[in-house]
Amino acid sequence: MVATTTTTTIAAAYFPAFPHSILSPHPPSTRPSLPYPSKPPSSSPISSLSLSLPNKPKPTPIAFSAQIVTNPLPQNHATSSDTDGPPTENHFNLLRTSVRYNDVELAKAVHASALKREEPKTTLSNALVSAYLKLGLTTDAVRVFRQCLSCPDVVLYSTMISGLAKSGYELEAVSLFFRMRKTEIEPNEFSFVAILTACNRLSDLELGFQVHSLVVKMGYVGFTYVSNALMGSYSKCGRLDFVLQVFDEMPERDVVSWNTMIAAVVKESMYDWAIELFRDMQRVDEFSADRFTLSTVLVACAGGRNWNGGRQVHAHGIRMGFQPTLNVNNALIDFYTKCGSIRDVETLFESMPVKDIITWTEMITAYMDFGLVDLASESFDMMPEKNCVSYNALLAGCCRNGEGMRALGLFCKMVEEGTELDEFTLTIVINACGLLTDMKISEQVHGFVLKCGFGSNSNCIESALIDMCTRCGRMDEAEKMFYQGLDNVSCPINWTSMICGYSRNGKLEEAISLFCNRPSEEVVVDEIALATVLGVCGALGYHVFGKQIHCLALKIGLLNDTGIGNTLTSMYCKCGNLEGGIKIFDMMSTHDTVSWNSVMGGHLLHRQGDGALDLWSKMEKAGLQPDEDTLRLVISAYGFTDSNLVEKCRILFLSMRTTYDIEPTPELYAAFVGVLGYWDLLEEAEQLINSMPFEPNATFWRALLDAGRISLNTRIGAMAAKQILALEPLDPSTYVLVANLYSASGRWQCAEKTREEMRKKGFRKIPSRSWIINENKVHSFYTRDERHFQSRDIYSAIDVLILECMKSGYAPDTSFVLQDVEEYQKKDFLYYHSAKLAATYGLLTTKRGEPIRVMKNVAICGDCHTFLKFVSVVVRREIMVRDSSGFHVFSKGQCSCKDYW
């Protein structure tokens, strides 16, 4: 007897309760009935026992097999006199030889010899059918089978059923099994293995249940290989619970039983359980692992990133003598790719005495995973044989490493050479177009895919096309593809792709609307869709809906996902709830670099530099390697500290190359310039310009321009503005920054001259948009906007607010009006800026005492900033405004930014 306590105990953690044993007889009311029709279905060729199956291309016999036919045969082979008598062992030897060397002519010669006999020999007929099926000659096998119908036996039926199932004719195999059941021939254990092979390939769970019931009824449940076939069939259908039941109730097991159970667990990504089963296999049943066991367990170690476990399996394989086995070595390459270093992979690859196309393909994948694109291309060129899979590996690796144009070039080569293209190839190429964001190239590839006939036949390709269109600015076409049929709308992949596309193209409200209008409960909400919608909530400042998505993540079990935790942290911080973001960060079981970046970025949004630096200190103690974004955030944090810590910032900036192996980029220089400008160290900023190892880009000069504006240094600001205009002469935001710089320093004529130049060139500033969320709806406002349905009430209220603020000392600053109008008109423009309108609407619609949350797409102007400080005193309310620089919290006449933004 076999002990089953261990596996049952382990499984209890995964399956809380199991249904009644499917190995026991079913109650009469629930027993599934196996359909034994009076005659097989008419759609099956076997219904009339005259199969008309397409013949596969005839293999070309190798030279050695020709010698077997034409040369004098050894003493144990058939001679001319033998072929006229009863079948001998030589006939069977010749059939085995024909299969071994793929020699079709030799098999047909033996068949011709058999036809000379007056009495059919069932044993030889069985061997002929088996040989023809193994040689891919299904039609010839059926012809032999038909000739033996006068005296068939269970072996002939079982051989035919098994061969049809393995040759891609699963439905015909099932029909033949029904035909056998209609006769007096009872199936044996091999018959059940054959029909279960067909069930496996069809993934037909209901048929598997019925065959299982017949197995129990006829008493074959005790045969180990029948139970193994049952386990394989249930595993293919994704029913791990039934696989476990069959396994636990087996009276005897063999190595195949354990291999099937371990493979089923690995298929469901339960990697730790698979390793436990491997240990139980050796401890409970004392079986020695074979090469299939080791390769499957190595897949589990790679999937679970179990470095120690994989090394132990490797050592075990060496001790057992399995290291030279090809499939074990291929599994080891995959393991070391995911858990080791490229040196480990190269050492293993070079030591392999035999390599196949899978080995070379895995080596290409390994180089790509480590970012070594050139080495992957060299390995591809050295491959002795290439196929579609190896091309796909190189294509996918190029996309993973951002080499979209390289992938397209390789694809063109595939087309020119006539290489087979499958759905995966086209999906990769479509993704490569998405990386390039080139509209014309995307249209060409889109047309090629449609010409190939894959456009509407594959969900993966259609989803990739939708994603490509959204990345290349073809939103109208993406929407057309998405909404052209109900099946597309209800497809989870397409649904997620469309939500991401809306978010990517700034259609944030459409993304939330599509998410809320999920077509059915069957559409699975995955982590990508959740992360995207959380990002949209953060961009809009949609705090209430973000909290609802948080609850949904908790409900569907995705809250432990690190990516979801990171987006939740970012969402709460961007919605003004820094405490909520910190709480999510503290509750996360694991943190990666993005986690720390998210919470540090939240502190910077709220201008809490000291808090961000405290987090940086904790991150260093945790031993986590920072990336470029981390250092940019840390450097920027020194511009928001309560005390001057420029010296520490300078040390960090100068040591990042040696300490963290990160080269300073223009963005890092720009962050340091911003810190120097905040602490009025512009001369050092100029020296930094002269010492830069590369030409500064517009990001750097904008930081210097902003530093000049804060320090009221028009010379520095003018120099920076000149450089920005040279790099981006068509960007109107630069003219706005220069005009504001002159206005802030009192140089009104220069400011007006800049605005006049802007008007002459036909430039207009980016429309200032402010919005506030009320009753689950986004209410947007632009300057002097009267489109809101409550605009009359809003304008009446803002007139009252302006009068009350003027009594408290507020004086409008018309220098922030860029229009060329009279002075009294400038005041009219100034009074109805978008931020003022949104804040006033918030005062009208929120409860007394609640803070008002306003979002803005550009930096708030100086006059609105001053006005809202006075409003916070007049109405005794806290007003929170998030603009492009971060949060401004107005309370009791003060702002959290300390008037530096």
Helix share of residues? 55-70%
Mean pLDDT: 82
Which class of secondary structure composition applies to the elements? Answer: mainly alpha
Q: What is the 3D shape?
A: elongated
- If helices are DSSP runs of H or I spanning 4 or more residues, what is the number of helices? 47
In whole angstroms, the N-to-C terminal distance is 77 Å
Strand composition percent = under 5%
**Overall radius of gyration:** 37 Å
The major beta sheet can be summarized as: 6 strands, mixed
Short descriptors:
single chain; mainly alpha; disordered N terminus; DYW domain-containing protein; RNA binding; Serine Threonine Protein Phosphatase 5, Tetratricopeptide repeat; zinc ion binding; E_motif; 3% strand; 901 residues; 6-stranded mixed beta sheet; PPR_rpt; 6 strands
Written overview of the protein:
By secondary structure, this protein is mainly alpha-helical. Among the domains are: 525-590; 593-661; 665-766, Tetratricopeptide repeat domain (Serine Threonine Protein Phosphatase 5, Tetratricopeptide repeat, Alpha Horseshoe); 771-895, no CATH class. It contains 47 helices and six strands. The protein has a six-stranded mixed beta sheet with strand order 2-1-3-4-5-6. Strand 1 (769-774) and strand 2 (777-782) form a beta hairpin. It starts with a helix and ends in a 6-residue tail after the last strand. Residues 26-43 have a biased composition (Pro residues). Keywords: Repeat. InterPro entries: DYW_dom (IPR032867), E_motif (IPR046848), PPR_At4g14850-like_plant (IPR046960), PPR_rpt (IPR002885), TPR-like_helical_dom_sf (IPR011990).
